[in-house]
Task: structure prediction
Amino acid sequence: MRLRRHGLGRAAAAALFGVVGGVASWAVLGTAQQGASSVPVQEQRENRVEPAVVTARTADVSSVLTMEGSVAKESGRYVARATVAPAHLYRFIDAPSTARVKIVDGPEPFTCGGVLIGADPSDPAGDVLLTCSIPASVKVFPGLPLKVAVETGNAANAVTVPVSALSGTTGSAHVTVVDGQGVRERREVTVGVVSGVLAQVTHGLKAGEKVQDPVADAFVDGAEGAG
Result:
């Protein structure tokens, strides 16, 4: 079923056809003869939409985490400080040494070195903080709001699948593998670096294998690699 030629994307198609739980249904209006007059008739039709299938591919994957924070002064030096949400700690595959900082309504973005991630020394039971040293050449003041971007992981030539094909995005997860005969197998895999779109699979899947992706657009050009 190709809808893009008629200007309908996935969202529009879903709204038009009432897709719920992988089932597309719609009404067809017509007329039926009854005596000397025509009577409107509505016929219900149903068409099951199979989940899309995508192919595991090799690609470079990097994960960048952006946080909001502020300028602080520690031991006579200025630092950029941001709170790391507990769930984001999973994303730190590699320990970063530098970060990129942008002072809100301030100077141009700059590199901030000496990245440290840990509890606030003044509140060991409190939030986990990311701090880095602001260069002396950058003019700042305590309390200025800022944004910090740091690379939390990088993998070159990695086996990848869309994030939406995974049951989880940290450590152990599952994918549904589809073989050449269309047989589906739920398989455990190990997840590495995760970007906003792709996830590295470090164990349990090979490049070229096909996996089910329930979020892929099955309305446009069918499912990738279905044959």
Summary: The first strand starts at residue 23 and ends at 34. Helices lie at 10-17. Residues 1-29, 217-227 have pLDDT under 50 and may be disordered.
